[in-house]
Amino acid sequence: MKVSDLVNELSLTVFSGQAGLDHDVTGGYTSDLLSDVMGNVDEGQVWITLQTHRNIMAVASLKEVAAVILVKGLEPAADTMVQSHEEGIPLLGTSLEAFEISGRLYQLLNPRG
Amino acid sequence: MELTYEVEGGNFSKAGHASSSIKKVLKQLNVDPKVVKRVVVALYEAEVNVVAHAYNGIITARVEQGSVSIEVRDQGPGIPDIPLAMQAGYSTASAKVREMGFGAGMGLPNMKKNVDVLNISSQVGVGTRVELITYF
Ligand SMILES: Nc1ncnc2c1ncn2[C@@H]1O[C@H](COP(=O)(O)OP(=O)(O)OP(=O)(O)O)[C@@H](O)[C@H]1O
Ligand SMILES: [Mg+2]
Predict the structure, then answer these.
(1) Is residue B115 helix, strand or coil?
(2) Are the beta carbons of A58 and B101 closer than 8 angstroms?
(3) Structural domain for B130, as ranges
(4) Alpha-carbon distance B54 to B37, whole Å?
(5) B28 and B67 in contact (C-beta within 8 Å)?
(6) Torsion sign over Cα A37, A40, A43, A45
(7) What InterPro entries is this protein classified in (chain B) (predicted)?
(8) Distance between CA atoms of A83 and A98, rounded to whole angstroms?
(9) How many domains does chain B have?
(10) What pTM, to 2 d.p., does this model score?
(11) Class of A3-109 in CATH
């Protein structure tokens, strides 16, 4: 499944980083602690968080995540979008809370799970 | 090959620049991607610790046949009790830093997990030196 499929299936907003919409998605990780994400997210996963500052894109890029989803209708800071664009990592948004969007993403990626 | 970077304490907007640059160099040198990933996790944590806890720092990375050695030396408050600082969950990060999602007390444990050798020495009121060595 590609990031663009998630955008369609989960009605996500695309804030920036359109160049990465064809990234393959291997799974997801939900956390707001940057060191936790640094230590545990895997390449190709989608990172779900409420953090909106630009350091999330540094972590996203170093870990090569497929995309970042901001929850609860939160909007990224302007410099977060700039870095998402530079890195080609999509910065997405949903009005749902982390629990709900994580559940929906899990179902989408594990149809029988 | 030796690379040197300056790190500015308190400047979160630049946190990760050195890690990102060293990552690119290691990739260009065709270092095993698994090794690059481990080095990057440890280095990012060390870099952010200078930003979050110290005043300024210098990162020196040496890439050799079979190893990456990184020294992160800072001028800062130092670490009074290193074994305590190494404990998962221990953090003295400010409320502002925690709000950003830093300060979980997971950085030093992440470093330990991802490199072959982690040496920390520190002098209170002077600064801290962190050495990260990865063999491949
Ligand atoms: N370079 C440093 N200078 C001064 N104190 C440090 C330094 N590095 C770590 N410390 C101390 O050790 C503690 C633990 O560090 P660690 O990296 O594990 O967690 P943290 O930085 O507080 O949070 P996290 O890394 O999860 O964002 C810090 O809160 C701080 O008190
Ligand atoms: Mg830390």
Answers:
(1) coil
(2) no
(3) 2-135
(4) 25
(5) no
(6) negative
(7) HATPase_C_sf, HATPase_dom
(8) 23
(9) 1
(10) 0.97
(11) alpha beta
Is B35 touching A (CB cutoff 8 A)? no
Question: Edge-to-edge strands of the sheet including A45-49?
Answer: A13-16, A91-93, A67-70, A45-49, A27-30
Residue tagged 């210098």 (tokens): B58
Tokens representing A89?
A: 């990592």
B56-64 and A67-70: which strand pairing?
A: unpaired
**Are the Cβ atoms of B13 and A79 closer than 8 angstroms?**
yes
d(CA A107, CA B47): 37
Q: Residue B48 and residue B45: Cα distance in Å, rounded?
A: 5
Rounded CA gap, B17 and B55, in Å? 17
Identify all chain B residues contacting A63, using CB atoms and an 8 Å cutoff. Answer: 37, 40
State the complex-level ipTM. Answer: 0.95
Q: What is the pLDDT along chain B (136 residues), one digit of tens a residue?
A: 999 999 999 999 999 999 999 999 999 999 999 999 999 999 999 999 999 999 999 999 999 999 999 999 999 999 999 999 999 999 999 999 999 999 999 999 999 999 999 999 999 999 999 999 999 9
Structure tokens given for A38: 């640094």
In angstroms, the CA A21 to CA A39 distance is 24
Does A34 contact B23 at a Cβ distance shorter than 8 Å? no
Domain locations along chain A: 3-109
